[in-house]
Amino acid sequence: MAEHSQPYDPYIPSGNNAGGSAAQHDAGRTRTEQLQDQVKDVLGVMRENINKTTQRGEHLDSLATKTDDLHTSSQGFRRGANRVRKRMWLKDMRMRVCLIVAIILLLVVIIVPAVVATKH
């Protein structure tokens, strides 16, 4: 039962002697402390990675929100641009109709008196 009083450590060589020498015990403890330090370092890196992943997720959520806002504003811009395009087309057509009517009136003013003068 003497072996059960100490925790099991695979880096402490086991032998027939129950306690081992003091140098072996100190070397095993130093090795155990080194391993514990490495485990703490790994845990610290893992926590840092988890925090970075969480922050990245928050940034992605923010980016998704901004993308949705940009999509909404682009749809509004597209509608406004179509309205302006239709207004400009209508204004252009009115101008063309006015020009055609003016040319026809000018031709009527020139041709009708000439035809009336030739009949007399």
Describe this structure as you would to a colleague:
With 120 residues, the protein is an all-alpha fold. It has a domain at 82-119. Helices cover 82% and strands 0% of the residues. The mean pLDDT is 85.
Name the poorly predicted regions: none
Structural class by helix and strand composition:
mainly alpha
Overall pLDDT = 85
The proportion of residues in beta strands is under 5%
Number of strands: 0
Q: How many helix segments?
A: 1
Q: Report Rg.
A: 47 Å
Q: What profile does the largest beta sheet have?
A: none
Instruction: Give the terminus-to-terminus CA distance.
Output: 147 Å
One letter per element, helices H and strands E, the order comes to H
Q: Portion of residues in helices?
A: over 70%
User: Which shape, going by the Cα principal axes?
Assistant: rod-shaped
Can you give keywords for this protein?
120 residues, mainly alpha, 1 helix, 0% strand
SSE map:
Layout: H1 22-119
Quick summary:
With 120 residues, the chain is mostly helical. The chain has a domain of 38 residues. It has 1 helix and no strands.
